[in-house]
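FORM 7B: Structural annotation worksheet

SECTION A. Query
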Amino acid sequence: MLFERELSRVRAHNSRNLSWKMGINQFSDMEESEKRVVLGYRKDIGYLRRGDGRLASPAHAVGDRAQLAALPTSVDWRTANIVTAVKDQGHCGSCWSFAAASTIESFYARATGQLPTLSEQQILSCTPNPDQVRG
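SECTION B. Predicted structure
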């Protein structure tokens, strides 16, 4: 029943011919509570907050609206060879190493025109953990 409901939701979305498509993946038969355990992202702390406590848009963080107005309304970084394919970190709790690798890959691609694929495991293994007790 859960999977069928998700499949219906995906089909309904995709029938609208929007700019992006939904799909079925390993999370499609999970309850929201199960997804939260696996994904670990907390939406309530994932945004910048303004001084008054309200959520801030990226424009508030940057500050220079003239520069923002000059930017294109959209960029497809995939066709610009600036981002690698989507990576699946599975149950790895080190999402920061995936974010670091992707960021470095994209900055390198912008600077050189070459898009490398870096090792998240190497970043993880070579970065000391300040919370780890050494004996």
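SECTION C. Observations
The mean pLDDT is 81. Residues 78 and 99 are 16 Å apart (CA to CA).

SECTION D. Sign-off
Analyst initials: ____
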